[in-house]
Amino acid sequence: MKEIIEELIKFRNERDWEQFHNPKDLALAINVEAGELLELFLWKDPSDANPNKIKEELADVFAFAFLLADKYKFDVREIVLEKIKKNGEKYPIDKAKGTAKKYDEL
Amino acid sequence: MKEIIEELIKFRNERDWEQFHNPKDLALAINVEAGELLELFLWKDPSDANPNKIKEELADVFAFAFLLADKYKFDVREIVLEKIKKNGEKYPIDKAKGTAKKYDEL
Amino acid sequence: MKEIIEELIKFRNERDWEQFHNPKDLALAINVEAGELLELFLWKDPSDANPNKIKEELADVFAFAFLLADKYKFDVREIVLEKIKKNGEKYPIDKAKGTAKKYDEL
Amino acid sequence: MKEIIEELIKFRNERDWEQFHNPKDLALAINVEAGELLELFLWKDPSDANPNKIKEELADVFAFAFLLADKYKFDVREIVLEKIKKNGEKYPIDKAKGTAKKYDEL
What we know:
Four copies of one chain form a homotetramer.
Chain A lengths: L1 H13 L8 H17 L11 H21 L4 H15 L2 H4 L10
Helix pairs in contact in A: 1-3, 2-3
């Protein structure tokens, strides 16, 4: 992951784009890219979306997510593992197994 | 990253949630989490958002993005580096430097 | 508003699109269009976004929002006025005045 | 629609919130609410979402969409009818009938 972040920052700095990349606009960018990803599934069965396009839009989501993580010096591995632990408390196996209910409805 | 994906899948399988995790709903989930991340910046200066909450919502975005990548067996490092290369062609340094314009307006 | 909804439904039916317009995909469509609207503000000061493009993307948000309202036979005027009343309880004037805090932080 | 917009503005002004309601944050708010609407459909069949909750989240989408329209003094009826006309050119009936393809794939 270090390599990805370094490449993203190199790309950004070569274009002098850090001035635009405040955390709020990076969060906006994640939403914009997430919306483009979602569009690939619109009006379709899940299996009918185009994997090559999904690959590109998902890569964009990751790119801005990594850049936002870098802004706060978050370690992506650490914050995801921490969140999994926290979600484990919200969704204990015995209550959450086999149901898609939200934690406040379990 | 392998470890993150393995932990996410373990969490999912312990709860028998794979049945819900089709690609379309995973793309939905990314959008839902991206929206919760965005809410932390709403009506605020970028610097006034709460980093602890950002950490959690961003972790959720990553979690579903990794799960969607896993569905298609995408290598995250590979697809992001590939996209950086492609974006380099859309945004050549000499044209894109210092401007936030979209590629079709350069 | 009746006229707008009638025109939207006429447009949809002429194209035989009702088969695609289930409530879930309409909610997806609202998100996709909201993302396109958001993109017009990305990396920009609020005043630098292009009003002509905003007009079009906002119109798309309205279009799918009206179609989703129609699916459930919601009266848009009624549901918005009802929500204003409910929000008035969550955000009492004396507590909410001049602050952008969320109701659970007031 | 006039009445809705007047009530929304009254609600906003009583709380002195106009200072926060720049167009960019209103577009953010639309996305945040659209995400909350989308969450009601997550992991579910379209028919399993809760209409009472949909009513509330959809009302929030409408509320911020009307407030953004008001910022630019757009007439909602006019911009939607205009967009329907424009979409009619992108999706001519004979080509678009019965297919969910995007206009650039027709």
